[in-house]
Amino acid sequence: MTDFVDGTAFNAEQGNRARKLFAAVVLAALDDAIADDKKYGNGPEQIARWARSRDGREVLSCAGIDPNERVVTGLMDFVGKGVRTSVALSREESERRNAAAQAEAA
């Protein structure tokens, strides 16, 4: 019996890593737009311009996000709220854990 690495599993793992990398680029773009919004008041317009650009659409697609107008609107709304991505993600994770704990206790 010969030992070998399953090529399919390896490729799937590489794909997941690439998606995570591009997702990090999307989060950085959101944080940049939030900073622009606080400094210049044009954050939602900046993220919309980026998301509609060729590069933005490509990054969103590589992150596993369909670059449609509904997504652009959601990105603009997120930037308009002014909550940095790290804070939003940690709060969301905390709320999810609390909800799971409450459901388990009930």
TrEMBL record:
GO molecular function: translation elongation factor activity
Keywords recorded for this protein, A-Z: Elongation factor, Protein biosynthesis
InterPro entries, alphabetized: DUF6280
Pfam families: DUF6280
Record's protein name: Elongation factor P
Organism from which the protein derives: Roseovarius gahaiensis
